Amino acid sequence: MDIELIEIQEFLASRPPFDQLPEETLARLPKHLSVRYFRRGTVFPPEDADQSYLYILRRGAVELRDPQGELVSKLAEGDLYDMQCGDAPQDASYRGMTAEDTLVYILPCADLSILRAEHAAFAEHFEQSVSNRLRKALDVMVDTPNAGTGLMTVRVRDMVNRAPITATPETSIREAAKIMSAHHVSSLMLMEGEHLAGMITDRDLRNRCVAVGLSIERPVREIMTEKLVTVDLETLGFQALIAMTRLNVHHLPVLDGKRVAGLISSTDLTRYQSANAIYLVGDIHRTNSIETLIQISAKITELQVHLIASGATANSVGQAISAITDAITLRLIEMAEADLGSPPVPYAWMAGGSQARREQSSHSDQDNALLIADHAQPEDDAYFAALAKFVNDGLAACGFIYCPGEVMASNPKWRQPLRIWHKYFANWIVKPEPMALMLSSVFFDLRAVHDPENLFEELQERILERSRTNRIFIAYMTANALKTRPPLGFFRNIVLIHGGDHDQTFDIKHRGLVPIIDLARIYALSAGIPETNTIERLQVAAERGVLSREGSANLIDAIEFIGTLRMRHQARQLRNGRGADNFLSPEDLSPLERGHLKEAFLLINTMQESLGQRHQAGRFA
Amino acid sequence: MPSLLDWRRRWHLRHAPPGPLRDYLEQPFAHPRTDYRHQEYLAIDLETTGLDSRRDLILSVGYVIVRGISIDLSTACHRVVRIDRSIPEASAVIHQITDDQSAQGGELIDVLTELLPVLAGRVMIAHHASIEQGFLSHACKRLWGRELFTPRVIDTQVLAHRTFERRQIPFKASDLRLHSLGSRYNLPRYGAHNALSDALAAAELFLAQAAYRDNGKGLRLGDFLC
């Protein structure tokens, strides 16, 4: 047999899905190919072909456009054009054109069918839609953890193993306590028929009954907690852990559909070793010294590396790290209050940016602000200035560097009574100037970390009411978001950074994550969705019908995929004792990852286009 | 009406000994007025011990059929020829065929007996075709006593030369090399230097040159011939 088509064989062997073919099949494959050449600007696929082919780009580039002339896909070296070989009749409305001088290998569809019939792994590539491929890539990435079992993979279903202990809300407190003792449980779920009405814990018996001298003959309804956060059987152990950490509770009811399936406690979770996030949070709650907080936060980096190694997705890691930042912030606030005394008027500590979105990676910048009750007197500001300084300095000492834009509570501009905040937002929304747009990623992702009097709720309602009804504002935000496009052509080296420290890389955060975060923010603001987390925003946007289910699911997969690539890149750097950055080299990725990343970029691009059209962003571009 | 070329082919045919050479001449040559898109070609490259077709020897042959504007890789063929002397180091550096590999090769007569029917009726494509023409012709003369008559040849180097001249693009001799021209047309660069990959590179170069000349109004084979 000839050796010589070896270079074509090697070219194919390095590309998915041909990398799935066995060596001997690959060796024979070049003999089934023909070669064609098209000048730049030639109609693609060619109209003069004698039959239907799979086109494999060897050199050059092809652009595919929809009937409106919008770019829907760009094929580059190694990419396939398989529309002629599909099972469904091909969509003739897409028009392609070579964007460069292009050399292709062509394989008759009949030969492709044979290969697909004989090689299942190879065939899979053609059977999946783009979104399925992305989802699968993510699964592969997170399903190969170094530590076999752990909270990343175990589901709540596997930790709830006994029938729930229940009573009715009309049971007396005494009777309820007896039931709990008899079953050795520290909490009791209260049912009205099939419906979960509430829950009591040992703590409730102590605080709401004994301590206040309530008669133990009263119905337990009077001391139960009614607004319950629940998890379901399919929730990952890790997500349950995050929920507990966030709410600072130790029990969560588990639902199976609408039926109560049981209860899960923090003890159930801490049996799994990768629960060290909750240990960190527990340590934070217990300490009284800033030195200890600094020591604990030094472990965040280690936690990030560990979580990624055990198969966590970017969102899980972001949730865990943000939960820890919240806990540190809260602890610092408590320490400040212990030092300065009770606040003269109620206030809320607000976090902005990635902390608000629960998407932090280890040691992001700090973005925060203070919301003070309107009846504060001018002299009260001294108290809040001191509190803000204490907390900002504490966070900085813990490695959360001062925000370069000075968006911190210690800056008087961002330490204001509610009425001024209303005015700020009214202004930004009515006059979305560049300054406002610059701040939008901080202040339109806003969440209260400490807010005992619920001041934030009113502010948020007004912001969403204004943003929802102001179409010009949304159009401005959209136009601004569309300025950051994914580096569609980076395989062609055209948008890699040239020169300097980041030569031949691209910024995966700025070009990949930020566009999705921006899209989700616009969906949220235009539909009045209060969620701040990007994935939650996209989910709710689909529920409200402002975004298609398909589009929402695809964007969630895309951000998880890109985010996880980024986290892995950072984990690699951290393991090598280097500082983490966002500059990824295409060479660090496998061809498959590169392919998926490109699909994710194309998807973002498509979603940007459609949002731009809906909100007429062109008027403000 | 039979063309002058066809008359000459039949004259050669009458004088050729029975065998591969005669069979080759049985096939009429392509007509220059044929639409180039409907013609078949054979892109060919030889590796030799030197450049003198009278003294040097063919070491290997690579070829692939081009059907109109599509290269048919199923026809790709590469043959190493056994020679009766050691390979000069100067040429071994280029084609990397060692004495051992050559010793495993086929006899020249078998290689040419296989090649000639494939070439018959097709237009030869080669880069700097006079080498291929010269060596094949001389080999036939030694084997069968008659030179190989190859009147239908496309030389991709000559085509490139014409393009440079017509467009008044200044060029150096090295710009006319196969790989330099390939990169001008965004063609893949093959690392290995062997007869088949060079034949394939010449075939691809021809497709590119044809695509650049073809303005959709139709081109004739004669527009490409030497």
Automatic annotation (TrEMBL), chain A:
<dbReference type="Pfam" id="PF00571">
    <property type="entry name" value="CBS"/>
</dbReference>
<protein>
    <submittedName>
        <fullName>CBS domain-containing protein</fullName>
    </submittedName>
</protein>
<feature type="domain" description="Cyclic nucleotide-binding">
    <location>
        <begin position="17"/>
        <end position="81"/>
    </location>
</feature>
<feature type="domain" description="CBS">
    <location>
        <begin position="159"/>
        <end position="216"/>
    </location>
</feature>
<dbReference type="InterPro" id="IPR046342">
    <property type="entry name" value="CBS_dom_sf"/>
</dbReference>
<dbReference type="InterPro" id="IPR000644">
    <property type="entry name" value="CBS_dom"/>
</dbReference>
<dbReference type="InterPro" id="IPR051257">
    <property type="entry name" value="Diverse_CBS-Domain"/>
</dbReference>
<dbReference type="Pfam" id="PF10335">
    <property type="entry name" value="DUF294_C"/>
</dbReference>
<keyword id="KW-0129">CBS domain</keyword>
<dbReference type="InterPro" id="IPR018490">
    <property type="entry name" value="cNMP-bd_dom_sf"/>
</dbReference>
<feature type="domain" description="CBS">
    <location>
        <begin position="224"/>
        <end position="280"/>
    </location>
</feature>
<dbReference type="GO" id="GO:0008773">
    <property type="term" value="F:[protein-PII] uridylyltransferase activity"/>
</dbReference>
<dbReference type="InterPro" id="IPR000595">
    <property type="entry name" value="cNMP-bd_dom"/>
</dbReference>
<dbReference type="InterPro" id="IPR014710">
    <property type="entry name" value="RmlC-like_jellyroll"/>
</dbReference>
<dbReference type="InterPro" id="IPR005105">
    <property type="entry name" value="GlnD_Uridyltrans_N"/>
</dbReference>
<dbReference type="InterPro" id="IPR018821">
    <property type="entry name" value="DUF294_put_nucleoTrafse_sb-bd"/>
</dbReference>
<dbReference type="Pfam" id="PF03445">
    <property type="entry name" value="DUF294"/>
</dbReference>
From TrEMBL, chain B:
<keyword id="KW-0378">Hydrolase</keyword>
<dbReference type="GO" id="GO:0008408">
    <property type="term" value="F:3'-5' exonuclease activity"/>
</dbReference>
<dbReference type="Pfam" id="PF00929">
    <property type="entry name" value="RNase_T"/>
</dbReference>
<keyword id="KW-0269">Exonuclease</keyword>
<dbReference type="GO" id="GO:0003676">
    <property type="term" value="F:nucleic acid binding"/>
</dbReference>
<feature type="domain" description="Exonuclease">
    <location>
        <begin position="40"/>
        <end position="215"/>
    </location>
</feature>
<dbReference type="InterPro" id="IPR036397">
    <property type="entry name" value="RNaseH_sf"/>
</dbReference>
<dbReference type="InterPro" id="IPR012337">
    <property type="entry name" value="RNaseH-like_sf"/>
</dbReference>
<dbReference type="InterPro" id="IPR013520">
    <property type="entry name" value="Ribonucl_H"/>
</dbReference>
<protein>
    <submittedName>
        <fullName>DNA polymerase-3 subunit epsilon</fullName>
    </submittedName>
</protein>
<dbReference type="GO" id="GO:0005829">
    <property type="term" value="C:cytosol"/>
</dbReference>
<keyword id="KW-0540">Nuclease</keyword>
<dbReference type="GO" id="GO:0006259">
    <property type="term" value="P:DNA metabolic process"/>
</dbReference>
